[in-house]
Structure to design on (335 residues):
């Protein structure tokens, strides 16, 4: 029987992935804490697989300990793999497999939801009526119809977001280092340069992975070049945005609204209940003071359909490993 240590587990992990693994005859040991250099000591001999999420830190030191205990697979229950030292994993013979796409609709729809909530001042309106304040001053939004939406990145999520935004009657312009021109023509959307997106887009939504070349792709220079009053959406990776520079752009009004489902220093905060503690992150604390900022705690993926797909693919990956086989090639991550 394959034995799995699953880290950073929440109730929805147990309800979906946990049940799926147990039904497949896989022995699962749940860990509520994250995997890192301090907690890796809990992995003992007899563990075949560690199952991790986006904020687990599987660096070289962690991998060396895992290998010494006989672990031979790192099963990511997410698409991102920047938390894993892939070179170290290869050196120690650990297979790394992921869930490359669980529900692009969930993430794309969340991006559009953030944009609409910012535009129509939904959080402020909701707070008012709960206080029996039914005035409308300060809640003026704009028609989405006829506006321009700029997408940076057109993978599966970006494409779906583009199609949803187009449904509002917007003009959708896009940039991607590898443009899919045939799809764009069929969808009635257009690829442009990054500078054109900056000049023309009323809403900019990020849909690119985090690589060294995309780190802080939204920085002070880029923010200054955006259309004044732009709404910026990020449901991809927190470090795509220089948060300090973003705060300055919010203070001057250069950026008119921000919707974030990710934050570059989210580790140790997102997915946790810190309601009884003092916020020790001055940047995040300042960001949360702006009325035109909406932050959700990395929940864009959180739909029933996405959780079911994560459970299915992760279970298949571990089952293949248990049989001495390789998961599907698209799911294997290499250095």
């Amino acid at each position: 029987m394959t034995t799995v240590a699953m880290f950073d587990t929440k109730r929805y992990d147990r309800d979906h992935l946990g049940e799926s693994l147990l039904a497949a005859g896989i022995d699962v040991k749940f860990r509520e804490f994250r995997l890192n250099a301090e907690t890796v000591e809990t992995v003992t001999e007899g563990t075949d697989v560690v199952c991790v999420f986006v904020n687990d830190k599987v660096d070289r030191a962690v991998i060396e300990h895992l290998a010494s205990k006989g672990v031979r697979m790192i099963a990511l229950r997410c698409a991102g793999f920047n938390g894993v030292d892939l070179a170290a994993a290869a050196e120690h013979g650990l297979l790394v497999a992921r869930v490359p796409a669980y529900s692009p609709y969930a993430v794309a729809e969340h991006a559009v939801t953030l944009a609409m909530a910012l535009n129509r001042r939904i959080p402020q309106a909701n707070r008012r009526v709960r206080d029996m304040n039914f005035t409308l001053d300060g809640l003026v939004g704009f028609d989405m119809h006829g506006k321009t939406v700029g997408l940076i990145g057109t993978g599966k999520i970006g494409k779906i977001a583009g199609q949803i935004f187009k449904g509002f009657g917007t003009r959708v312009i896009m940039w991607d280092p590898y443009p899919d021109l045939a799809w764009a023509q069929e969808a009635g959307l257009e690829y442009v340069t990054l500078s054109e997106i900056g000049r023309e887009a009323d809403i900019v939504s990020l849909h690119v992975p985090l690589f060294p070349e995309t780190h802080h792709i939204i920085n002070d220079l880029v923010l200054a070049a955006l259309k004044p009053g732009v709404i910026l959406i990020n449901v991809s990776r927190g470090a795509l945005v220089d948060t300090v520079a973003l705060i300055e752009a919010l203070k001057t009004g250069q950026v008119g609204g921000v919707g974030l489902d990710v934050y570059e220093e989210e580790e140790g905060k997102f997915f946790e209940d810190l309601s009884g503690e003092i916020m020790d992150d001055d940047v995040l604390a300042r960001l949360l003071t702006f009325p035109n900022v909406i932050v959700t705690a990395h929940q864009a993926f959180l739909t029933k359909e996405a959780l079911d797909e994560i459970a299915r693919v992760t279970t298949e990956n571990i089952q293949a490993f248990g049989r001495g086989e390789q998961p599907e090639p698209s799911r294997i991550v290499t250095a």
